[in-house]
Amino acid sequence: AVAGPALPDGSLLPLLDDELTLASRLPVESIDMRAFHEAAGADALAAKGVLHARLALGSAAADRLDVFTTHLQAGDDRFEIRTQQIRELADFVRGRAGGGPVLVMGDFNLWGGDVDRADPGSEYNLLLGALDGAVAPRRFVDLWLAAHPQDPETASGTKPRVLPDGSVRPREKRIDFLLLAGADRALPLAVRRDFLPSEIVVDGAPIGNLSSHAALLAEIALRRPGEDASTATAASSQP
Question: Taking a C-beta distance cutoff of 8 angstroms, is the pair 72, 108 a contact?
């Protein structure tokens, strides 16, 4: 397992480091990390940024999987900060992604429902465009949509749809993504969400779920160059 980003030298904020963690059953060949330069509100207390690990799939140089996990600024009114963080994320991916598959995942704190995907100016399309540019000519695939092409919105939101007053949110608030480039060598076998219920009790009351929004769980079959799809090895991912 690897954790990060570390606190910037000489800074008063953030106060907390190691905001991200990657755990792998595959050998970790190298790691790198960056804390975002811009943050606001409570987000400024933690070293939000991006963590990278290059995983060895085999002995050949091309048998590498680059994994990036990130956590962007929260808040519907923080568009400008998230935009800057997206640029930093894309620049970081551009400088570290190799020729193999690239997986970018995490809590992006921006909406990815059908309305957002249809809007060329949405934050979702800004994110995809920036990341596509970082690995061009490859393009990223949203693994939830790839696994649910006929019914992409049903239960796909990672925030609960029922609002505190009992009403239902008019559209899904899908903010957690698994984005894969190099899909010619990778196939999403299954992608699901799980709120990870917990029996932990605090002050005499159960906390219910471990988080206010769901984890994304994916099983991905990775093919080495020249390998047939039937013999691909499976890897699991979760932001």
Answer: yes
Please tell me which residue, 108 or 59, carries the higher pLDDT value: 108
Which tens digit of pLDDT belongs to each residue from 202-225? 888 888 888 878 888 998 887 765
- Classified as helix, coil or strand, 204 is coil
What is the C-alpha R_g of the chain?
A: 18
Q: One-letter amino acid identity for 129?
A: G
- Measured CA angle at 103 (ends 133, 193), to 5 deg: 125
Provide the pLDDT for residue 119: 94
Residue 106 and residue 37: Cα distance in Å, rounded?
18
- pLDDT, one tens digit per residue, over 143-174 is 999 888 877 766 667 787 777 888 877 777 88
- Residue 239 and residue 101: Cα distance in Å, rounded? 17
